[in-house]
Structures are given as structure tokens and as C-alpha cells.
Design goal:
Length: 286
């Protein structure tokens, strides 16, 4: 039997039901996290919980659990569902109230849900790399909030998929921002470059792990805006996310990135990233 977390209680997944006037359902009025599980353990859990609480706070939702309580609940959920490799999906909405754009007055309880999803690592793509398209970033200007409102991201990802590609790399005019569900990195003359974490992108947990790895291992790294032209002329391109890890991008808009195979720095970062996973979660299946 599968279990889910609903408002602090772990219950049968099929019993986890949400009201039709939940504001997440009607307005996308909430925030979420996706947390990777390796060997039954949560990777970078403190970072995910911090971001979850921060996202919620930034839209005025106060989660009635501490980070520690959430961690304990998620651990219990993992154990009950016996999850070895996969993800936890967790979201909180402002709660249930008669439909109105205004925040409900008075105390309403946020709706907090988490459940587990089985899923293996994308080992083939990690080895050979993926294709991407370029598309204009049409999203709002608070992409730092991990909001449930993902329409812009969905339209971009769908367009990529319809062109046989894994990801859509978004740009605002000349500036590359991020993927539809990932952060984007380029490598030029040995320097790793990725967009600074501001309101135009999500501050990826995987991105931050990669930045730390670069600093610790003396790999030159810059957090700054880079242009579409720089992307097109890059020596290497890769993307990062909780589920895609450090994923080489080998083709953009039908044009190969250099010789069309994962580059040296990307492969080095993949190795170092796996070491970090193993430090936190134990030895990985390859
Ligand atoms: N940018 C966007 C828009 C994202 O949706 C994500 C992750 C990232 C960057 C990378 O962030 P993390 O490194 O913290 O994962 N999106 C999650 C999602 O919706 N599915 O998987 C990961």
C-alpha cells in the first residue's frame, strides 16, 4: 500500500483528498519542492526544506511545521513507502476558502501534501547528453519563488518535447535565464558560467552544489548573466536539476555543441557530483 502525507498525517494515498475550492487547485496559490532520494535517503534535504519555507513565506503562507518536523514526517513517509530511488513531491497551498482573488481573511489552514514517486537515475542521458531548444522566457518576474504556477514552464517544455528535445533553454531577449525545469551552465576556456541567482531564475539546489564543488576543486566559476551568443559559442553546455543531476547538453536548436559529445569539465563535474551524492546517501548504482 502507498502512503501520502496530508497536513501532518501519514495516510493511505488513496484517502488523500483535496477540496475543489483549494486555492492551489483554483489559483496555483502555493509552492512546491521535488526532493531526490538515493538509497532510501534524502539528498540535500536541509536546502530543500529551507527553500520550501522561504518560498512559502515570500507569498505569505506560514507552514505550521518546523523544518525538523517536516524532515521527520518525510523520513517516516519514505520508510512507510519503502522508497529506495526516486523523488518526494511536496507542496503547500494557502488552503481552502470560497473562491476570491483576495487572500482569505482569518485563519485558514494551509494544505500540505507530500508523496513519493519511484524513479531511476537517467543514466543513459547522463552519459550521452540531451538535446535542447531555445525559446523566449515568457514567465513572470519572480522565478525565484518555486510557485505552483508553471504554465510558462510547461509551454516551453512541451515545445521542446514536440521537437524531439529534452529541455527548453529560455532567454529574455539576449540573456539566457534558465531551462523550463533546470538551471543552465556553459563552459568557456575552462570557466564554468551560470546565471546569478536573482528574481529571474530559481536558485537551484543542484546549481548551488555544483558552485560549491567548483570552488572546492579550484574550477574557475562565474555567476553572471550570459548571452545567447555566448551559449552558441560555448565549449560545453550542461543543465542541472534535482532529477537530471549534471546533464550534458550536446545539441541546441539542431546545432551540435562543439563536437556533440559531453565535454571534459562536464564529465569532471558529474564525477564530483556523484561523490557528493555518495557522501550524503551512500554508494550509487551505476
Ligand atoms: N529552474 C526551474 C524552473 C526548475 O523548475 C528547477 C527544478 C530548477 C531550476 C533546478 O532546481 P533544483 O536543482 O533545485 O532541482 N525543478 C524541479 C521540478 O519541477 N522537477 O524536478 C525538479
Amino acid at each position: 500500500m502507498e502512503f501520502a502525507l496530508l497536513n501532518g498525517n501519514i495516510i493511505k494515498r488513496s484517502d488523500a483528498k483535496i477540496d475543489i475550492e483549494d486555492r492551489g487547485y483554483q489559483f496555483g496559490d502555493g509552492v512546491y519542492e521535488v526532493i531526490r532520494i538515493y538509497n532510501g535517503r534524502m539528498f540535500t534535504i536541509d536546502e530543500h526544506l529551507n527553500r520550501f519555507l522561504k518560498s512559502a513565506e515570500s507569498i505569505g503562507i506560514s507552514i505550521p511545521f518546523t523544518s525538523l518536523q517536516l524532515k521527520e514526517l518525510l523520513d517516516e513517509l519514505l520508510l512507510k513507502n519503502n522508497l529506495e530511488t526516486g523523488n518526494i513531491y511536496m507542496q503547500v497551498t494557502r488552503g481552502t476558502a470560497p473562491r476570491n482573488h483576495l487572500f482569505p481573511s482569518g485563519d485558514i489552514m494551509p494544505t500540505l501534501v507530500a508523496y513519493t514517486i519511484k524513479g531511476v537515475r537517467p543514466l543513459e542521458s547522463l552519459k550521452s547528453g540531451v538535446k535542447a531548444i531555445l525559446t523566449e522566457d515568457i514567465r513572470w518576474l519572480r522565478c525565484d519563488i518555486k510557485s505552483l504556477n508553471l504554465l510558462g514552464n510547461l509551454l516551453a517544455k512541451q515545445k521542446a518535447s514536440e521537437q524531439g528535445c529534452f529541455e527548453a533553454i529560455q532567454h529574455r531577449g539576449d540573456d539566457v535565464t534558465e531551462g523550463s525545469s533546470s538551471n543552465i551552465f556553459i563552459v568557456k576556456n575552462g570557466t564554468v558560467i551560470t546565471h546569478e541567482s536573482n528574481h529571474l531564475i530559481l536558485k537551484g539546489i543542484t546549481k548551488d552544489v555544483i558552485l560549491d564543488i567548483c570552488v572546492i576543486n579550484n574550477i574557475p566559476v562565474q555567476e553572471r548573466t550570459f548571452s545567447v551568443a555566448e551559449l552558441e559559442e560555448a565549449d560545453e553546455v550542461f543543465l542541472s536539476s534535482t532529477t537530471a543531476e549534471v546533464m550534458p547538453v550536446v545539441e541546441i536548436n539542431g546545432k551540435k555543441v562543439q563536437s556533440g559529445v559531453p565535454g571534459h569539465t562536464t564529465r569532471k563535474l558529474q564525477e564530483l557530483f556523484e561523490k557528493e551524492i555518495e557522501n550524503q546517501c551512500g554508494v550509487l548504482l551505476r
